Amino acid sequence: MTQNLLTTEQVCDILGLKPVTVKRYAKEGLLDSIPDNGKLLFEEEKVNKFKALQAKLR
Length: 58
What we know:
Blueprint: E1 5-7, H1 8-15, H2 19-27, E2 34-36, E3 39-43, H3 44-57
Antiparallel strand pairs: 1-3, 2-3
Protein backbone atom coordinates (compact mmCIF):
# COMPACT_ATOMS: atom_id res chain seq x y z
CA MET A 1 0.00 0.00 0.00
CA THR A 2 1.52 3.29 -1.06
CA GLN A 3 0.64 6.45 0.73
CA ASN A 4 0.11 9.75 -1.01
CA LEU A 5 2.63 12.29 0.19
CA LEU A 6 1.76 15.97 0.09
CA THR A 7 3.97 19.05 0.03
CA THR A 8 3.61 21.88 2.52
CA GLU A 9 1.86 23.94 -0.15
CA GLN A 10 -0.69 21.19 -0.81
CA VAL A 11 -1.38 20.86 2.92
CA CYS A 12 -1.92 24.64 3.10
CA ASP A 13 -4.55 24.39 0.36
CA ILE A 14 -6.34 21.50 2.09
CA LEU A 15 -6.31 23.00 5.57
CA GLY A 16 -6.64 26.67 4.60
CA LEU A 17 -3.51 27.59 6.54
CA LYS A 18 -0.36 29.55 5.76
CA PRO A 19 2.95 27.69 5.23
CA VAL A 20 4.42 29.10 8.45
CA THR A 21 1.48 27.65 10.41
CA VAL A 22 1.74 24.21 8.80
CA LYS A 23 5.50 24.13 9.52
CA ARG A 24 4.88 25.18 13.14
CA TYR A 25 2.25 22.48 13.58
CA ALA A 26 4.74 19.94 12.23
CA LYS A 27 7.51 21.21 14.52
CA GLU A 28 5.19 21.07 17.54
CA GLY A 29 4.07 17.55 16.67
CA LEU A 30 0.47 18.51 15.98
CA LEU A 31 0.75 17.38 12.37
CA ASP A 32 2.93 14.40 11.45
CA SER A 33 5.54 15.13 8.81
CA ILE A 34 8.38 13.37 7.03
CA PRO A 35 11.60 15.33 6.46
CA ASP A 36 12.84 15.09 2.87
CA ASN A 37 15.96 16.99 1.79
CA GLY A 38 15.13 20.09 3.83
CA LYS A 39 11.43 20.01 2.96
CA LEU A 40 8.51 18.45 4.76
CA LEU A 41 6.14 15.87 3.32
CA PHE A 42 2.83 14.89 4.83
CA GLU A 43 0.74 11.72 4.50
CA GLU A 44 -2.57 12.60 2.85
CA GLU A 45 -4.56 10.35 5.19
CA LYS A 46 -3.13 12.04 8.30
CA VAL A 47 -3.76 15.50 6.85
CA ASN A 48 -7.39 14.58 6.20
CA LYS A 49 -7.76 13.24 9.75
CA PHE A 50 -6.27 16.49 11.08
CA LYS A 51 -8.73 18.47 8.96
CA ALA A 52 -11.66 16.48 10.36
CA LEU A 53 -10.46 17.09 13.90
CA GLN A 54 -9.92 20.78 13.14
CA ALA A 55 -13.52 21.03 11.87
CA LYS A 56 -14.87 19.49 15.10
CA LEU A 57 -13.00 22.06 17.19
CA ARG A 58 -14.46 25.07 15.37
